[in-house]
Amino acid sequence: MMPWRSTNEDASSAGNMQMNEPNLKKKRSDxxxxxxxxxxxxxxxxxxxxxxxxxxxxxxITKWYAGMHxxxxxxxxxxxxxxxxxTACLQSDVANQELLIPDLCISDKSQYSKYIVRVLxxxxxxxxxxxxxxxxxxxxxxxxxxxxxxxxxxxxxxxxQLKKCGNCKSSVFDIHRSCPNCSYKLCVxxxxxxxxxxxxxxxxxxxxxxxxxxxxxxxxxxxxxxxxSTYPVNWISELxxxxxxxxxxxxxSEGACxxxxxxxxxxxxxxxxxxxxxxxxxxxxxxxxxxxKGEPVIVPNVLSRTxxxxxxxxxxxxxxxxxKSTHDLRILEFSVTNCLNWCEETINIHQFxxxxxxxxxxxxGRPKILKLEDWPPAESFAERLPRxxxxxxKCLPFKHYTHQAGYLxxxxxxxKKSLKPELGPKICFGYGVDEHLxxxxxxKLQYGLSxxxxxxxxxxxxDPVVSSASNEKANENVMRNQQxxxxxxxxxxxxxxxxxxxxxxxxxxxxxxxxxxDVFRRQDVPKLEEYLRRHYGQFRHKFPLQQLFHPIHEKAxxxxxxxxxxxxxxxxxxxxxxxxxxxxxxxxxxxxxxxxRNLKSCTSVSANFVSAESVGECIRLSTEYRRxxxxxxxxxxxLQVKTLVLYAVCQAVQYLERIDLNNTIRNPFEHENVQPGExxxxxxxxxxxxxxxxxxxxxxxxxxxxxxxxxxxxxSLLTEKINSSAGSS
Length: 729
Hints:
Blueprint: H1 13-19, H2 21-30, E1 45-47, E2 55-57, H3 58-64, H4 70-75, H5 87-90, H6 106-142, E3 176-178, E4 185-187, H7 188-195, E5 226-228, H8 235-246, H9 284-293, E6 297-299, H10 313-320, H11 329-332, E7 333-338, E8 343-348, H12 349-358, E9 370-375, H13 381-384, H14 386-394, H15 399-402, E10 426-430, E11 442-446, E12 451-460, H16 468-487, E13 513-519, H17 525-534, H18 561-571, E14 576-581, E15 585-588, E16 594-598, E17 601-609, H19 615-626, H20 641-665, H21 682-699, H22 705-724
Antiparallel strand pairs: 1-2, 3-4, 3-5, 6-15, 7-8, 7-9, 9-10, 10-17, 11-16, 12-15, 12-17, 13-14, 13-16
């Protein structure tokens, strides 16, 4: 141990030492405390030989670091290994550079930018055509040509607030109709539907103008809605012209991949899901092919990229319980779903996490099969759990797609001040119960908001803890309840069918299996929807639905093994069925319905991303959302896909123009055969000056106006000087 006081100190320092003696005693006392619990009364402490500062008591080693021998702590403590899960370390700030993704070279960025423009160009054309139709209609009303039409700019800046259509609740893209007296707005799609008679509460004048609806419908009364634009005049049309000039003709090969396991004529009920190793360079083209085809992909063992920070439920609880206000019920309590009856209930956060491994029982002796989704609810993942967020980012596969700042992730193209869609990441905790109890937690058939990556971070075989006196009664109640559920399938509230928790294909006793997935193909969705509508009465529901608006958006169905067999027999379709193991990352493309059931207690983290390959499906889903009833839970346009397409194309075109300009003016003589050290001829200089002038005139918008004017002036002076001296030596 370092000496507390040097032997060669002068006497004048003695007074200072005496004054600081309480602090020195405190430091000496702290050095004997366990770094995990900050106490020194729990037994022997194992010292770290690497930092020579921290130690961990045997009690904390056994409780919080199960499976790690004390020699492991002596060689290098968890703090030195960056896996300490004490409250202070879990809440510590992380280095931002560890969350960044490797930058791309200019060649890769250029290639990806051309690819983005090529894939998104057809959608941008459709947006422009849709807006031109409304502009043509407005021009006829005003008796003008489209070229002579001048639209006022919307007062509400698109960079700071989101404008929503008053009818379909989707985000307003660019051109829209707005009431001059109130905030009511209509998107161009709704304007066309009103003229076609699909919306009855909005009236038309004799000239074709749309009247603002009544106050009961969100408007203010008989005022004409004016056509306005969010962006500068003709800016999107000009962007489309530029995009057409730089679009790349490359697209993934149409041939089948060797690892694709879908065989439509196969007699097997299940088939192989593609597995990709996840190397950022070697396997990205492989992954891109499956994403382009709309096929889910499994990337195994992504947890090997992390430091090994614990995702135990009680560690998560300790990481999140440090709050400013102990009365914040939003943090201490939350609503969870009991998958036994699909009802919501409120539970304390510590009780929920404790029941994750020990189990919870109700008064009738039945296990509570609880599921908590989209946690944390209040803050972002990075703010509430900074260390775990860092671990999640480290194990993301194909970061150029899945990272929130990835170059091929379309939301990363939006301006910093604009409103971005909420894409996660979020945590899902689901209880699992032993096989003899015959129940499990599940996520019903649903769509993802967009492309989704889901990583299984932790699994645990639940060991239900009940008192010995009530154990026999509990088991009897469980068996009786199971029998009652089978006899009364169509009565009362919904219960998980036994076939959703155990079947001949996947069992609870799988050592590595954590969650069973079923993912359906995009092209099979119409038949899947028809099957659900046709057999709606065969499913049991939490509450009887008054009306089935959309069988998948309702999130009200779970297809059992029997249902999947009937689906194949009647319609000839089947899902990808596979088991997600601990450390597996499952990537599901947008537009592929999926359902999940937990074979064990599972902790998974999911995040959404938007690839250019899936934009078409995102647009299809947004069209379905806008047709849902106003109070439907899936009604909101959370993705704003049209805006994402616009910004992605704009940024890609600007980058390609900037690179092209840099290549044009970087070396004035690189296109002329001039050797290093050789003096160029006047004709060579003249041609290069003309080329530089042309570049400034065609791509000068990348420069500040005064700089462009100065450069053009200097080029003109040099050209005149060369021309005037052409006859001299």
